[in-house]
Amino acid sequence: MNRPPVNRPMNPQPRLGMNGQVALLMVLALALVEIACGGGSGGISGTPAPPPTTGPYSVASLNGSYAFTMTGQDTGGFFARVGSFSANGAGSITGGVEDVNSGAVGTAILPFSGGTYSISSNGKGTLNLTNQTGTLQFTIVMTSSTSGLLTQVDGNASASGNFTVQTPSALSLASINGSYVFDFSGQDPNGVPESLVGQFTASGGVGGSGVVDDNDGAVPSGPQTFASSSFALDTTYGATFGRGIANINGINFAFYIVNGSKIKFMETSFPSLVVGDATAQTGTIPTTAAGLSGSFATVMGGASLSGSDVRGGRFTLNGGNVINIQMDDDSSSNSGSGNSNAFIIPNGTISAATYSVDASVPGSGRGTLQFTDSKLGTFSFIFYLISPTQAVIQDNSAGIVSDGSMLAQTAGPFSTASAAGNWALSFVGQSINSTTGGFGEEDYLGQYTQTSSGSISGGVDFTELSAPAVATNLAITGTMTVQGDGTGRNGYTIKVNASPSSTLNFSAYFIDANTFFVVGTDTHRTITGTVIRNF
After folding, report:
1. Burial class (CB in 10 A: 0-12, 13-18, 19+), 439
2. How many CB atoms lie within 10 A of CB 521?
3. CA dist., res. 440 & res. 19, Å (int)
4. CB count, 10 Å around CB of 508?
5. Nearest one of 182, 181, 134, 158 to 79, comparing CA atoms
6. Residue 262's pLDDT band (boundaries 50, 70, 90)?
7. In whole angstroms, what is the distance from residue 498 CA to residue 148 CA?
8. Is 5 in contact with 230 (CB distance < 8 Å)?
9. How many CA atoms lie within 13 A of 102 on its CB side?
10. Helix (H, G, I), strand (E, B) or coil at 349
């Protein structure tokens, strides 16, 4: 690995992206965006969202213990929190605990003494968690009866993430069993963007061997095997909240068990900080290119040599060849002139488009994918298969540190009419603030209804620490325009009815009838996100 597993040096080295600020994004929860906003007032005025659409949710929808992950920016820079909270189904938080890794406080374990929450029928609501530092305030949106998205709105940070109900019977080391694929991203000890993807094995909580690809500062390591890992359940919080500590290839983590198939991790060796999930491999993992085929949608976020970069799109795998490639790249510049570059792939002629499943690390699900665009150069990726239809993916193209998800496209063709219904959205990112001239993260969390003609109406919450600005329940309008059979690039627009208003334009790529990725197409902003049907 580029970052030594123990006793990692703190020598300065060239930084990627955003004038030294970490620009590596947790994809599916984070994005980059530049938007005009109220300067310095701490709030944004605008049109309030319409009354919520009647749906299946209420305070009873949040009942049990939920593991969560959040990443963002606080007064110390890039930070993360992972933890668990318990809701009683009647509007009260009865307990919980979180681990925080932040430049403002270092690392800390903070129990929750209580709190409150509310949920409207459309799944939109609030969540307040009280610990020894005060009360953390979030807005949330349920994406199903067992999971949701959240963003911090108390003005102390710009941060977003997700939460998932925990299985009480799985909160033990015995449930950590089998092979897991992980995707951890953040920063190394020098604040340089870093992405680690790979696989580890465990047997009843006894760690085994594994393999990792470490892209540290746009210097990919290639596959690096490690002999062992370790896991221990916290004697205070483990049995109730699934908390434990782990060491994977020399890196120390706090973890929270969701169930036997999902574990949330955060590094605890400040100032190093990588965070992400490990997911159990299922099904028969292909061992050859011939065993892996079909159409996939992907989205990745991270940093480039000039700023921040996000990519999303789709492609088809067929017998070692990659065909039907459509991708959008949205990148920013740290020159002080703002975010300024969005382009589509193919831009020229595509050649040498191939993929393989790596035989040198058998059973890991590791593979490679690459293609060359005659005008844009060569694009190179590493993936680890969670199943034959799901993978984590790391961008190893020149000058890029980026990672994300690669999911099989199913249930097509898609149409504007079939996309009608109720959706939750999460857009998060970093921008050049028009008031301060500095870089700062912005977070959007919303819920809307789309008609069969593609018209969108709903509400969104917005926060930007560097402005500073927090606004909740702003009205949004927009359109979804499905092109052809919907399996390729589609049009998607969201207008935030703040003062002044802002229109965000995207390409949208469907995964299935209930989820799509978006990548910005505006030349003056960089943005990506995930949109999930919530009823």
Report:
1. buried
2. 20
3. 11
4. 25
5. 158
6. very high
7. 25
8. no
9. 23
10. coil
